[in-house]
Specification:
With 435 residues, the chain is mainly alpha-helical. It folds into two domains: 2-139 and 216-341, no CATH class; 368-433, no CATH class. The protein is 68% helix and 3% strand. It has 20 helices and four strands. The chain has helices at residues 2-8, 11-14, 18-32, 35-43, 50-72, 84-96, 100-119, 122-129, 135-154, 173-190, 196-210, 235-238, 244-269, 281-298, 309-314, 320-340, 345-359, 371-386, 390-407, 416-433; strands spanning 78-80, 157-160, 164-167, 303-305. Strand 2 and strand 3 (164-167) form a beta hairpin. Helix 10 packs antiparallel against helix 11 (196-210) and helix 11 runs antiparallel to helix 17.
Length: 435
């Protein structure tokens, strides 16, 4: 049985083993476990019961990660997406006055649309249309994005009205704890410890507990609480013509955030073949689409591939076992969610910074001497962290690449779908810039 599983997950081809995959899965889970509490706190502002959303978050993350690992066989974990949950809460429910039940219906419809687009091959065509020359730029840009989130969560970088960002208060105990964690992980990596990131996160959490920096207050929680949001979506109301825009945004942002994550993790894990393609693409896309449908039925916003999966890849994860371990841990979290809250942001932030630094190594593959590629690559790298959006970074890269190719007289080298996507990105820029 064990040998059959190892063949199925291609352990030999991927040069991995059970110990490495399990540690990688634990590392990914610990790095992204914050979503168990952040997602409910955001969606609670719509009037959704926080305990129900907590259970729904764990359930859809478990389903999506297990499906990605067992069906698609990739080390990519899934969970409700940050950004899309904010759009769900602040733009749709609070901004437009849409009941949360109807908003869940829109999420469900976007998931069904994803499944249909995948089955007829549209999503695969979009993936194939992305110039492979920009793959490294996307990976590097997301690396900066992850590191930026880590610096922000640690308090090393804070907002500034004068300069947008500035250095934080290094006398803040939590910031000092993050700096300790960063140095600890770096030292472990220097000594080539395979579980460096996981040990660093847990070690930093322990130090925080010793010095009284874990302000953790478990709340009452039961798996049965999910009944307050499960099956409460209103699909009929969401089918109204006025909700096309909402469904389109869920589709658009989810599509390109997922593509960016896929490219970044794929580059780091060496998952692309010689034709610059990722095998079993259909299964990857069907996994995240199915998870979104399950999430809407359970009571949460759009489910996406998590860029924190890169933490597991850096820890050595290469097969679907990594994602399966994440899924199993989310199942455990269904019953002990409050305990998972004991890991503070100050402990996970250093892990994000280190993962970002590893992903930045992809810039060496960019032909910087060729401005037709170098400029779109640079814009992609900078736009992702500075606009806080993977989709925006891809938009800058797509549009500038197409324009420069046409200006250079190489318009025949561009995939016809690239022209359509470029036009959509331009329209999106115009739409976002109005008002």
């Amino acid at each position: 049985m064990r040998a059959r599983l190892e063949r199925y997950f291609q352990f030999s081809e991927l040069n991995t083993n059970w110990r490495t995959e399990i540690l990688a899965g634990i590392t990914t889970f610990v790095t992204m476990a914050y979503i168990i509490f952040v997602n409910p706190s955001i969606l609670h502002e719509t009037g959704m019961p926080i305990a129900a959303v907590t259970a729904a978050t764990c359930l859809c993350a478990a389903f999506g990660s297990l499906m990605m690992g067992a069906f698609a066989r990739y080390p990519i974990a899934l969970a409700p997406g940050m950004g899309l949950n904010a759009y769900f809460t602040y733009s749709v429910v609070q901004g437009m006055g849409v009941p949360w039940e109807t908003a869940l219906g829109a999420v469900f419809l976007s998931g069904v649309a994803f499944v249909i687009l995948t089955l007829i091959g549209v999503r695969q065509m979009i993936v194939s249309a992305i110039p492979f020359e920009l793959y490294s730029a996307v990976a590097a840009g997301i690396g900066l994005f992850i590191a930026f989130i880590g610096f922000r969560n640690s308090g090393i970088i804070v907002a500034s009205p004068a300069t947008l960002v500035t250095m934080g208060n290094f006398r803040n105990p939590n910031t000092l704890l993050s700096i300790f964690g960063l140095l600890l992980i770096a030292a472990l990596l220097a000594w080539e410890v395979r579980a460096a990131i996981l040990i660093g996160v847990l070690g930093t959490t322990a130090v925080g507990a010793i010095f009284g920096l874990l302000h953790w207050q478990p709340q009452s929680y039961s798996l049965a609480d999910i009944t307050a949001t499960a099956w409460k979506l209103d699909i009929r109301a969401a089918l109204g013509i006025g909700f096309f825009e909402i469904i389109f945004v869920f589709l658009f942002v989810d599509l390109f955030d997922n593509l960016g994550t896929l490219v970044a993790v794929g580059k780091r894990a060496g998952l692309f073949n010689e034709a610059h393609q990722i095998p079993r693409m259909n299964r990857i896309l069907l996994s995240d689409a199915s998870a979104t449908i399950v999430g809407s039925l359970a009571g949460t916003s759009t489910v996406v591939s998590y860029i924190e999966s890169a933490a597991g890849v850096v820890a050595g994860g290469r097969s679907g076992v990594t994602a399966i371990v994440v899924g199993l841990l989310f199942i455990v979290a269904l019953f002990i969610a409050p305990i998972v809250g004991g890991v503070p942001a100050a402990a996970t932030a250093p892990a994000l910074i280190v993962v970002g630094s590893f992903m930045l190594s992809q810039v060496v593959e960019i032909p910087w001497s060729n401005p037709v590629v170098a400029i779109p690559a640079f814009l992609t790298i900078m736009a992702i962290p500075l606009t806080f959006s993977i989709a925006n970074g891809l938009a800058f890269g797509f549009v500038s690449y197409t324009v420069l190719k046409v200006a250079r007289g190489q318009f025949r080298e561009i995939n016809w779908l690239m022209y359509i996507l470029t036009a959509l990105f331009v329209l999106r820029f115009f739409y976002l810039g109005v008002g």
